[in-house]
Design brief:
Blueprint lengths: L2 H21 L8 H13 L3 E6 L3 E7 L8 E7 L26 H17 L6 E7 L7 H7 L2 H4 L4 E12 L3 E3 L2 E2 L3 E10 L3 E2 L9 H19 L6 E10 L5 E2 L2 E10 L2 H21 L3 E10 L3 E2 L1 H15 L4 E3 L9 H7 L2 E9 L19 H15 L22
Parallel strand pairs: 3-4, 3-5, 5-16, 6-15
Antiparallel strand pairs: 1-2, 2-4, 6-16, 7-14, 8-12, 8-13, 9-11, 10-12
The protein binds nickel (II) ion.
Length: 408
């Protein structure tokens, strides 16, 4: 039976698994039910299964019909939901108030399970596939937690791959690009300590509200003044807290925000400049600014020399004309931690159609089940292409032929 036909026969089951996960969303490091379901299914198909890798992470290890290549690839799906109250009407709507699969990780998990089932039944590859089901992608850095729990020592991988459903692309399209495709994501908190007092006597106080406002405006100029315009960067103040009454100046004001960019040097420059701007402005007004800067996720940087391979896999999955350029996004993704350790590629899998226009993290987001066959086919094709059964042994370098001695 052809791969397409076999996948078509699985889609009903995979859709049901996906909808069950959707109904029962679990957030960062609390994916207990989800992890148990994943582990149960992997075991049912005879896949060697390991739980509690990076707290709630699961890894399935599947050896191919042959293992002469000695090569192993890691395929990653994220399992966690978000703290969002779902605003959908369909029957498989979240049963947990305030939690929702609003990023489609239910779909990612179900599709990788579908591929695992197919490959367990058709292990037509030479090498090993590690199915990596990670917790806490949404801010908890689950990929990093798995790595720190010795993911790659326990389950060595030569290459790692991941996908994300993409509402900006149509179903049946795949986005691929080399280099950075998601931004690094950091956060800052600036605490401005002025001198509070009666609002009628500003000359006796240090106005932390005015200082906070000045710092906020100045931070907007940090990107335009301190980074290469071609690099792409963003500094946004997203919280501003201070004051409780109209006739008293607060002593303390707090600003918080996000910093996103693609280039590690830009990341460092922004961190330094935010400190300088905040502290310099506060000092100028006689106040003090304390800056806490937290590095969160790095940028996902796809390995350039794996991109052509992935374009070939994508073309076999959806046809060459449907393989598009993946335009980098200011969103972030913790698969970045895995790509810092191993070569690999993160792709965008189109999910939009007339009924699926909501963006990720919207309370009306709806994972498009029409994506499922594409996702399974992509993973299966990737495994078979990365670990071909009939790979020729690497060619020996031809022996240098002696040149005939030049005649005297
Ligand atoms: Ni996501």
């Amino acid at each position: 039976m052809s791969l397409e036909k076999e996948i078509k026969e699985m889609v009903k089951d995979v859709t049901q698994w996906r909808r069950d996960l959707h109904e029962n969303p679990e957030t960062a490091f609390e994916e207990f039910r989800t992890a148990d379901i994943v582990a149960e299914k992997l075991k049912e198909w005879g896949i060697e299964t390991h739980q509690n890798i990076g707290r709630t992470g699961v890894v399935g290890v599947l050896k191919g019909r042959k293992n002469t290549s000695g090569k192993t690839i890691g395929l990653r799906a994220d399992m966690d939901a978000l703290n969002i109250d779902e605003n959908n009407k369909f029957s498989h709507v979240s049963k947990t108030c305030g939690k929702m699969h609003a990023c489609g990780h239910d779909g990612h998990t179900a599709m990788l399970l579908g591929a695992a089932k197919y490959l367990a039944q058709n292990p037509d590859f030479d090498g090993t596939v590690n199915f990596i089901f990670q917790p806490a992608e949404e801010g908890g850095g689950g990929a990093d937690v798995m790595i720190k729990d010795k993911l790659f020592e326990k389950f060595p991988c030569d290459e790692v791959y991941a996908l994300h459903n993409w509402p900006d692309m149509k179903v049946g399209e795949i986005g691929v690009a080399g280099g950075p495709v998601t931004a690094s994501s950091d956060r800052f908190k600036i605490t401005i300590k002025g001198k509070g007092g009666h609002a009628a006597f500003p000359h006796k106080h240090i106005d932390s509200i005015a200082i906070g406002s000045t710092i906020s405006l100045a931070l907007h100029a940090v990107v335009s003044s301190n980074t290469n315009p071609l690099d792409g960067a963003l500094v946004s103040v997203t919280k501003f807290h201070g004051g409780v009454s109209t006739n008293a100046m607060p002593e303390v004001v707090e600003l918080e925000g996000t910093v996103r960019c693609f280039n590690p040097e830009t990341r460092l420059a922004l961190e330094e400049q935010i400190q300088k701007v905040a502290q310099g402005i506060a000092l100028g007004y006689g106040a003090v600014a304390e800056v806490e800067y937290t590095r969160n996720y790095p940028s996902v940087v796809n390995t350039e020399d794996k991109v052509e391979f992935i374009k070939k896999v994508a073309a076999k999955t959806v046809g060459e004309k449907n393989v598009l350029n993946f335009r980098p996004t200011m969103g972030s993704e913790d698969f970045a931690f895995m790509l810092q350790k191993k070569p690999g590629v993160y792709i965008a899998l189109g999910q939009a159609d007339a009924d699926h226009n909501e963006g990720l993290h919207s309370p009306r987001y709806d994972f498009n089940d029409a994506v499922i066959p594409h996702g399974i086919k992509y993973w299966v094709t990737l495994a078979k292409e990365a670990l071909p059964l009939n790979a020729k042994a690497p060619a020996q370098s031809p022996k240098k032929q002696k040149k005939p001695a030049a005649s005297a």
